[in-house]
């Protein structure tokens, strides 16, 4: 194996030789209102902009441009909703009209360039319409995942300070109706920022009560909106803010610019996914996550593909054949999802018997990301589908793949457990605790040399200081990804998991630090630790260990119920926090730091070394006793 004479190597070298030239050339693949002459520029120490002198409109690129170039009758978006038993198809021309009218309606509400609009919607076409309408008028959208509880929504409302919120009366989760409107009302009540209006999509499954003059009916205002034209925005103007879990209860508002993002989306569709205009791309995720932003909405549309918006689950809607049905029914050429989805399918249909009912010959490749792709799932999927299964690694902050098997230009042999090679633009280095580069196969912190390529976050919303302290402080000149991993002797990158207080539950990124803050707020709790333990379906699941305040003699079962309920009510059901164990003491270092890693290893039944810094090793035996008497 070797990459010395490969097209990948040539592409990567072309980037390394002159990154400005490389990206300015890639920038030619999108249609600018004003073409940029500048590649990267440093706005302040460590803070970079891409194409600062360029002007464009992302909605224009995603819609009008294709209509103007003869793709008006091609399908842009297919909405497939097994939970409502409906499907809707929109051509590029039809979607452009809907978006233009809704953008006009937003303008009628006084929403203008730079205003924020929070979007709290289930997986319905209006989610994409809302995002694109904001992009059209230069407003900045901030989509909040529907599985988050009111408190999480309120935090985001206060940070983004939206003029308007777009939402729906309800979401549908399998066979459950989730009333969104009461959650929204409660979040608006909790937030200190005052929202001007909400726009509510009334769903027939459960319409919501509306507050006159404040809650506006989506269909009504869209029908009365005048079609608006895409406005020119600066390349560096924010397109959206997407909040992601950090190490504390305050999520980080990842900012995405317009210009760098559009160039990265267009480039990655070809380079990472080998997609061309007219192809059908399906990212089975949710618009509330970065995968949904990049690969349900923006990248496929900017590329002139047909995108699928699926309101359903991999299983139970109605069965574990759901993904194969969607692929065959809509002629999907590339499918992208999280490994959890296939672990769920494998559990319900281990022999993939349901796959035999469908012709999936249209499908060229399956792409997986969002969490570690465990080798058993990789092997099962490859064997059952006989399709190339490709792992790639990225995060909300980067917006596209930091490392992938670059099938758009060259396909490398897969090494199970590796995301393959760094994408051009990402200078990945593994750094040890002394700040030195690791040797091949030596694990360390996975870092990316600055500047980050187009599409990555230029900063944290309203908080350059937090951007610097979260990402740039640990290793000067590098962006800290928060993942640990190594490069092997062939240059393959292996990501081994987070090195901070972030866990990955069913491909959803959650903060254990935030869960600890919630548990610690319970009147009976003196201190606590939350960490992720292995789960065969969801990858990781959070578990809490709590020490009670002196003198508290609670009903343990009742206390566990209360702790579970407070995480569920504060973060949301999506946190999957279902276990709390009461212990007498927590193991700590002599300086007082809780040894969470050791706790995790003990809970997972892994071998662990007693840390040399431990204050009192006897606590570990006590903990083992608690673990063996719990039913985990
Ligand atoms: N709105 C409201 N609630 C939601 C929600 C949403 N959009 N999404 C999930 N929830 C709720 C679920 O109903 C569930 O609630 P419950 O505890 O009352 O049953 C809880 O949050 C946990 O959801 P989830 O982790 O999705 O578990 P599940 O058992 O319903 O489904 C899988 C398991 C594996 C099928 C599901 O996690 C899945 O499809 N994963 C794919 C991952 C993915 O797409 N990740 C995106 C990143 S690429
Ligand atoms: P998110 O920002 O929600 O997309 O989560 C990003 C995090 O998910 C990364 O920092 C990794 O910890 C994890 N992740 C994403 N893709 C992969 C992958 N292919 N392999 C291992 N971990 C991954």
Q: How do the strands and helices of this protein lay out in sequence?
A:
Elements: H1 7-17, H2 19-26, E1 40-44, E2 47-50, E3 55-56, H3 58-71, E4 75-81, E5 86-91, H4 92-108, E6 116-120, H5 125-137, E7 140-143, H6 150-160, E8 164-168, E9 170-173, E10 176-179, H7 180-190, E11 197-201, E12 215-217, H8 218-224, E13 233-234, E14 238-244, E15 252-257, H9 259-271, E16 280-283, H10 290-303, E17 306-310, H11 322-330, E18 334-337, H12 339-348, E19 365-368, H13 375-385, E20 389-391, E21 403-404, E22 418-422, E23 428-431, E24 444-449, H14 464-472, E25 478-487, E26 493-498, E27 502-505, E28 508-511, H15 512-520, E29 525-535, E30 539-548, H16 556-570, E31 580-583, H17 596-603, H18 618-629
Parallel strand pairs: 4-17, 6-7, 6-8, 8-11, 11-12, 16-17, 16-18, 18-19, 19-20, 30-31
Antiparallel strand pairs: 1-2, 3-13, 4-5, 9-10, 14-15, 21-22, 22-26, 23-24, 24-25, 25-26, 27-28, 29-30
């Amino acid at each position: 194996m070797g990459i010395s004479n490969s097209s990948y190597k040539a592409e990567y070298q072309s980037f390394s030789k002159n990154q400005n030239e490389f990206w300015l050339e890639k920038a030619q693949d999108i249609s600018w209102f004003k073409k940029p002459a500048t590649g990267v520029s440093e706005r302040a120490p460590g803070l970079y902009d891409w194409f600062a002198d360029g002007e464009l409109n992302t909605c224009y690129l995603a819609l009008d441009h294709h209509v103007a170039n003869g793709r008006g009758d091609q399908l842009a978006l297919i909405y497939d909703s097994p939970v409502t038993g409906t499907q809707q198809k929109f051509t590029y021309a039809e979607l452009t009209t809907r978006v233009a009218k809704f953008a006009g309606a937003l303008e009628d509400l006084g929403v203008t360039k730079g205003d924020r609009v929070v979007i709290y919607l289930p997986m319905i076409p209006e989610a994409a319409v809302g995002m694109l309408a904001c992009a059209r008028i230069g407003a900045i959208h901030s989509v909040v995942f529907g599985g988050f509880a009111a408190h999480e929504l309120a935090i985001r409302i206060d940070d983004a300070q939206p003029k308007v919120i777009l939402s729906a009366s309800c979401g549908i989760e399998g066979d459950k109706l989730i009333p969104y409107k009461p959650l929204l009302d409660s979040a608006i009540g909790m937030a200190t920022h005052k929202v001007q209006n909400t726009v509510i999509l009334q769903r027939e499954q459960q319409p919501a009560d509306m507050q006159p003059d404040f809650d506006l009916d989506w269909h009504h205002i869209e029908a009365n909106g005048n079609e608006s034209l895409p406005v020119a925005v600066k390349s560096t103007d924010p397109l959206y803010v997407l909040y992601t879990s950090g190490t504390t209860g305050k999520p980080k508002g990842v900012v995405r610019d317009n210009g760098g993002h559009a160039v990265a989306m267009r480039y990655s569709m070809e380079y990472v996914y080998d997609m061309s205009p007219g192809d059908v791309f399906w990212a089975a995720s949710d618009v509330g996550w970065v995968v949904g932003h990049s690969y349900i909405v923006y990248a496929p549309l900017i590329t002139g593909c047909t995108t699928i918006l699926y309101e359903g689950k991999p299983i139970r809607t109605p069965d574990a054949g759901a993904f194969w049905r969607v692929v065959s029914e809509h002629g999907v050429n590339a499918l992208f999802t999280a490994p959890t989805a296939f672990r769920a399918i494998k559990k319900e249909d281990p022999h993939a018997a349901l796959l035999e009912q469908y012709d999936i010959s249209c499908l060229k490749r399956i792409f997986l990301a969002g969490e570690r792709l465990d080798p058993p799932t990789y092997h099962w999927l490859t064997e059952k589908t006989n399709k190339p299964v490709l792992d790639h690694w990225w995060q909300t902050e980067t917006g596209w793949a930091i490392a992938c098997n670059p099938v758009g230009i060259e396909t490398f042999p897969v090494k199970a457990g590796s995301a393959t090679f760094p994408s051009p633009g990402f200078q990945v280095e593994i750094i040890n605790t002394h700040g030195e580069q690791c040797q091949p196969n030596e694990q360390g912190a996975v870092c990316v040399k600055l500047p980050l390529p187009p599409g990555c976050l230029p900063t944290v919303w309203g908080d350059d200081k937090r951007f610097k302290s979260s990402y740039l402080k640990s290793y000067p000149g590098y962006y800290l990804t928060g993942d640990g991993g190594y490069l092997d002797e062939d240059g393959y990158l292996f990501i081994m998991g987070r090195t901070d207080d972030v866990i990955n539950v069913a491909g959803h990124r959650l903060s254990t630090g935030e869960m600890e803050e919630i548990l610690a707020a319970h009147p009976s709790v003196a201190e606590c630790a939350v960490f992720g333990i292995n789960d065969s379906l969801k990858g990781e699941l959070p578990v809490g260990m709590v020490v009670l305040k002196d003198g508290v003699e609670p009903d343990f079962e009742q206390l566990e119920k209360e702790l579970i309920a407070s995480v569920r009510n504060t973060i949301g059901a999506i946190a999957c926090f279902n276990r709390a164990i009461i212990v007498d003491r927590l193991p700590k270092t002599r300086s007082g730091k809780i040894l969470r890693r050791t706790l995790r290893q003990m809970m997972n039944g892994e071998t662990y070394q007693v840390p040399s810094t431990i204050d009192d090793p006897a606590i570990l035996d006590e903990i083992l006793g608690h673990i063996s008497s719990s039913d985990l």
